[in-house]
Design goal:
about 210 residues, 2 domains, two-stranded antiparallel ribbon
């Protein structure tokens, strides 16, 4: 993956403000002066967010805010009214970005319903009781956003790695709990997840039941 040069604050703000439709130069300058463009770092993604350039979802539960990363990557930062974390979408259309975020949130909810099993698998990976290889494709197929994955990998200097051992991923999960989503995806792909669940269920059965007493 080729590293992109980070741009200056002024260049980034100008690029972001210029995405507003039918906005005069004076209006753009006033937007910056009025602090409508704010600095935020969410889920490892450093960006400028234009709170004066938003689109509300049809279901009125989420808002897409036009944003730009430090590398000049334009995105829609989607925030749900009832969720702590937002979603970064590189879709050009805000409604497509919102749909993408909604699907990711639904997928995250399904995985979080099994989070105790994900944590247990993580402990097994660290202890060496189970083994797993995670791929970049696992990360991209998970409930995480592509921009978040890219920036996380860059911060940890693992952008060039296409695979990661399960043990390393489990250790990273202690730093970034959302790594659990990628572990879950890789475990499902490899078939480890089903055997892990079966093993967990067997261990939870009382000894007397196992013996048929």
């Amino acid at each position: 993956m080729t590293r992109q040069t980070r741009l200056s604050k002024t260049a980034l703000q100008d690029m972001l403000i210029n995405t507003r439709k039918m906005t005069s130069l004076i209006d753009r300058e006033m937007a910056v002066a009025a602090s409508e463009v704010k600095r935020e770092t969410v889920n490892w993604v450093p960006m400028w967010v234009d709170w004066g350039h938003t689109v509300r979802s049809d279901c009125t539960t989420a808002t897409a805010i036009r944003s730009i990363t430090d590398k000049g990557e334009l995105l829609w930062y989607v925030r749900h009214d009832s969720k702590k974390h937002g979603y970064h979408s590189i879709a050009s259309d805000p409604f497509s970005a919102i749909a993408e975020a909604m699907e990711a949130w639904r997928k995250r909810k399904r995985v979080r319903n099994q989070w105790p099993a994900v944590r247990e698998l993580s402990r097994d990976l660290i202890a060496g009781r189970k083994h797993l290889t995670l791929t970049r494709e696992d990360a991209e197929q998970s409930a995480l956003c592509t921009l978040g994955i890219n920036w996380f990998c860059e911060r940890l200097h693992i952008s060039e790695k296409r695979t990661l051992s399960g043990r390393t991923a489990a250790v990273l999960m202690k730093v970034e709990p959302q790594m659990g989503f990628v572990i879950f995806e890789a475990a499902q792909r490899s078939g480890l997840w089903d055997s892990h669940i079966q093993s967990s269920q067997q261990h939870s059965i009382p000894t007397s039941m196992k013996l048929g007493e």
